[in-house]
TrEMBL record:
The chain crosses the membrane at residues 18-36, 91-109, 177-199, 239-258, 278-299, 320-342. This is 22 member 18. It is a multi-pass membrane protein. It is found in: Membrane. The keyword Transmembrane applies. Signal peptide: none annotated. Residues 19-428 form the Major facilitator superfamily (MFS) profile domain. One of its GO terms (cellular component) is membrane. Its main location: membrane. The keyword Transmembrane applies. Keywords: Membrane, Transmembrane, Transmembrane helix. It comes from Seminavis robusta.
Length: 439
């Protein structure tokens, strides 16, 4: 059994601890910088498309989200391959450098064309992918340890993401829609420096023996085409493709919900940027605490497949709750904000369990040297899902004459329940096939 970070010899253990702590800091900064923009973006789109009616604003916002995710769909597998080719340190520096460039362009976007153009460098904005690959490499074959490490990586992200929406919304409410992007440039450049100074130059952070090191050094590097072909072979493995299918369809569902909700809260309930930011930050805070203290016990008690199933059911239940809040309340008072925040917490926890459960299973189904490529595939599929998701979400939202969420959340809940059935059927089939082979 592979050792966890706490079980490694002292010298190696100190190295692992340093790598993880620097990665945590980078992900805190990444979460802060990214989430600073979330409550601001709908208002920035509205400002730059002045004169557009509500329907045009909704479609423009949806197209922006789809374009962003189309760019990331191209970039995510490239970063996964890049990670396996040039190592953690260099990949991390490239990722945060591209992120800083994107925010610098966003801070200068004075029309919609420039706003769309600012999303192009996000092709390489895959910091969480690099962090996940680092955590998976350190923990080896121990599912519980991997779930704990991935959960804590998510905790690191949500620490920054808890502060980000509230701070971004507050800054936007003061009248400057670009100040948060300027802060994000500085935060991203700090991560570039930390990556260069403290992260290892390969994915071998645990210190393999000399024989294994020499073997790896003597292995010829795959060409880019060979690496792409190998990633497709990984995706088609019986133990992997059903999980990636759930990632893809589940990502479409998450994107439909995530696009329609802020539009509805902004247009129907007249939420201010600060109120939208508070509801987002509340759910992030709870996820941070959950990932730090509850993820490992949950993984041990129900297993990663049970976590994924719980997440799908939880999302299916909470979606209609959002629709009911929008349909039956009015105004944007404190009670309504609290209701939205509570529903957001429960929905986000469900999505967190789903994502961690799936990633724990997929990273455990491949070799360590394939984990970067595998995670690149996951992020690619998630971004691919978010190309279709915003358009589907805004289309269903436009069908509602009253601006309610029932069409969107009904479709999302139905899809999540069907995914749960599919996941149970395919994982049961895989296990049965494995037992037959053993016999």
């Amino acid at each position: 059994m592979a050792t966890s970070a706490s079980d490694t010899p002292s010298a190696s253990g100190r190295n692992v601890d340093m790598v993880l702590w620097v990665t945590y800091i980078n992900i805190v900064l990444y979460g802060l910088c990214f989430q600073l923009q979330r409550p601001v973006e709908p208002f920035l789109v509205k400002s730059l498309s002045e004169g557009s009616d509500s329907a045009e604003f909704t479609q423009t916002y949806g197209r922006l989200q789809s374009f962003f995710n189309a760019v990331q769909t191209i970039g995510s597998p490239l970063v996964g391959i890049l990670l396996d080719q040039i190592g953690i340190r260099n990949a991390s520096a490239v990722v945060f450098g591209a992120t800083a460039l994107s925010y610098a362009m966003l801070a200068s976007a004075t029309d919609m064309n420039l706003l769309f153009l600012s999303k192009v460098p996000t092709m390489l904005q895959a910091a969480f992918l690099v962090a996940q690959a680092t955590a998976a490499n350190v923990t080896g074959d121990d599912n519980a340890a991997r779930a704990r490490a991935l959960g804590r990586m998510t905790t690191a992200y949500t620490i920054g993401a808890t502060v980000g929406p509230a701070l971004g919304g507050h800054l936007a409410s003061m009248g400057d829609l670009y100040f948060s992007a300027k802060i994000a440039v500085v935060g991203s450049l700090i991560s570039v420096v930390l990556s260069i100074l403290f992260l290892p130059n390969s994915t071998n952070v645990k210190g393999d023996d000399d024989t294994e090191k020499k073997t790896k050094e003597n292995e010829p590097k795959k060409s880019f085409l060979a690496a792409v072909q190998h990633s497709l072979e990984i995706a088609m493995r019986p133990a992997v493709w059903p999980l990636l299918t759930v990632k893809l369809v589940g990502g479409i569902v998450a994107s439909m919900h995530g696009t329609a909700l802020p539009i509805t809260l902004t247009e129907k309930l007249q939420f201010e940027p600060s109120q939208l930011g508070i509801s987002m930050s509340t759910s992030m805070f709870v996820i941070a605490a959950f990932g730090a203290f509850c993820m490992a016990p949950l993984a041990r008690s129900v297993g990663p497949d049970g976590m994924a199933s719980m997440g799908l059911v939880g999302r299916a239940l909470m979606g209609p709750v959002f629709a009911a809040i929008v349909a039956f309340v009015s105004g944007n008072g404190q009670i309504v904000v609290m209701q939205v925040a509570l529903a957001s917490v429960l929905h986000a926890l469900s999505s967190h369990c789903l994502a961690t459960g799936l990633t724990t299973q997929t990273t455990g189904a491949v070799n360590k040297e394939e984990q970067g490529t595998l995670l690149g595939l996951e992020h690619c599929l998630f971004s691919l899902a978010r190309i279709a998701g915003p358009t589907l979400g805004t289309t269903l939202l436009s069908w509602s004459k009253t601006g309610s969420l029932w069409y969107v959340e009904g479709a999302c809940a139905s899809a999540d329940l069907l995914l749960n059935i599919f996941l149970f059927a395919t994982t049961s089939s895989t296990r049965l096939g494995g037992k037959l082979k053993q016999n």
